[in-house]
Amino acid sequence: MTTPSGFVELVGAGPGDPGLITVRGRAAVQQAEVLIYDQLVHPSLLDLVRPEAERIFAGKRAGRLVYTQDEINQLLVEKARQGKRVVRLKGGDPLVFGRGAEEAAFLRAHGIPYRIVPGVTAAVGVSGYTELPITHRAAASAVALVTGHDDPRDPKARVNWPSLAKFPGTLVVYMGVAHLKDICEVLIEHGMSPETPAAVVERGTWARQRSVAATLSSLPELVSTHRLHPPALLIVGSVVNLRPERSWFESLPLFGQRILVTRPAEDCRLASEQLETLGAEVLQAPTVEVQPLQDFQALDDILARIRSFDWLVFTSRHGVDAFLGRLMHLGHDARALGGLKLAAIGPGTADQLQRWHLRADLVPDRFLSEGLVEALSPLVLGKRVLLARANRGRTLLCDQLEAIAQVEQVAVYQNLDAAALPAGVVQAMEAGEIDWITLTSSAITERLFNLLPAHIREKVEREIKLVSISPVTTATAQKLGWTVAAEAQTYTWDGVVQAICAARLLI
Fold first, then answer.
1. Of 87, 131, 318, 483, which is least packed with CB atoms within 10 Å of its CB?
2. Total-model pTM
3. Residue from 171, 223, 169, 181 nearest 201 by CA
4. What averages of pLDDT result for each successive group of 10 residues across the chain (507 residues)?
5. Common-topology check for domains 7-119 and 258-287+418-506
6. Which residues are catalytic?
C-alpha cells in the first residue's frame, strides 16, 4: 500500500549477476509502482517489476546522461508526492560511489519517507567471482576503496594518490580504467614498487567477466592489448597473486554464454535461474503468453461430467494448474478424479501433478505427442479419453487416439502471442551479444520468427546458435530457414540445458 506522501526505496542491485540482489531488494522491486534504474542494472531484474509499473531509465545512453543528478532527485520527490511507491535501483550499493547519500539527503530535506536497501558492492562481488581475495591473513589486512574517476595528476583530484602509494593493503579502484596508465604511473612515482601485482576485472560477476593480471608497470599495456573497457575494477596488491588461474565462476559449464529464453514469462524465470546457476547470462523474451480462459463454460460443462471419462490426459504443466485450479474454484477437490487414470506428456507435467498431490499413471518414454500416442494406444482402446490442453496447438494426439477411443478435448487455458519482443533483446541481437536462443515449441519458434525484423532473422541464421527441445521443433525451425545447432536428447527443458552444455564441450 502507498502512503499519501508516497515512499522511496534506494536499492542496491549488486554488481551484475541478478542473483546477488538482496531478498529485501528483490521484494522492493516487485512491489514498485515506479522504478528508476541505472545502466549497470541487469536487464532481468526489470522483469520482476509489475507490468503496470512505470519504468524510467536514468543511466547513461550513447555516452550522455538521460537525467542529471539534480533531475533524478526532483523526479524521486515528484513521483513520491503522487503517492507512489518508488524504487531507485542502482548497480552495486547505493552508498558506495552510488550517490545514494545525496538522494537520501534530498528526500529528507523534502519530507519524503525513504529506506536504503544495501547491495553487494563491486569490490566484494568481483572478489568472490574471481577468487581474488581483497583481504588475506598472509597478504593484506586492510583494503581501500577509491574512485579513479578524476585525473590522478590533477592537483584538485579528490583522491590522495601519494598517500595511497604507501597504503599497507589492497587498493580497489572503481571507475579507473580511463585513467589507468596515469594511476599506475602516479603510484609508482610516489613509492609503490613497479613489480606490485595488479589486475583489472571487466564486467565482474557477469557472464562476460574478463580479467588480466600483471605488474603495476606492465598492466596498462596488457589491458590495452586485451581491450578491456568499463565497467571495470583495478585491484592493486599482493593479493592478486593468490587468485587461481580460473575461478569457480569462470569454470562453470556455461560461463561466458548469453542465452535468450523465449518461453512464457513464468517458465522464463525458472529457466533463467537454472542457466544462471551454470554461469550463463540470460535475457528473457517471452514469445507467447499463458492466460486464463475468457469463457469457462465449455470447461465447466466437462467438469460437471468428469466422472464419465476413463483417462484424463495433460500435455503441459500449465494445463495441470488451469484444470485443477478451475476444479477447486467450483468447489470440488481431488476426489472428483477418483475414478480416472491420469497421463502426463513428460516428467515436468507429472511433477506438476505431484504438487497437486496426484500421481500420473502414465508418462511416456518419449516426451512429445507421438510418444504419448504410442504409450496410450494399448490402454485406451474403447475408453473415454479427455485431453486437457491449450486453446491451440498440434492436434496429433486427438487425431490419432480418436480412431481407437472416444476422445474429447477441452481448452483449459489460452496461449496468446506476445505483441513484441523487449527492445533490449532486439538491440542485443543486433549488436551480436546473443550466443544461444532456446526453442521449446513450434509455436514459440514461429512467433519468434514473426516478431523479428528480416535482417535479424538472417543474423540468427548466420551468427546465433539455436537449441531445440525436440525433432518436431527442429523441423519447424528448418521450415523457416533456420539451422538448429543442438537438439535435446530428452524432450524437456533439462534436455535443452544439457544439449547446450554438451555443445559447449565441443566448441
1. 483
2. 0.83
3. 223
4. 73 95 98 96 90 92 81 97 97 96 97 98 97 95 95 91 96 96 97 98 95 97 96 97 95 95 86 92 91 95 95 95 96 92 95 96 90 94 95 87 94 92 88 95 94 93 95 96 95 94 82
5. no
6. 38, 60
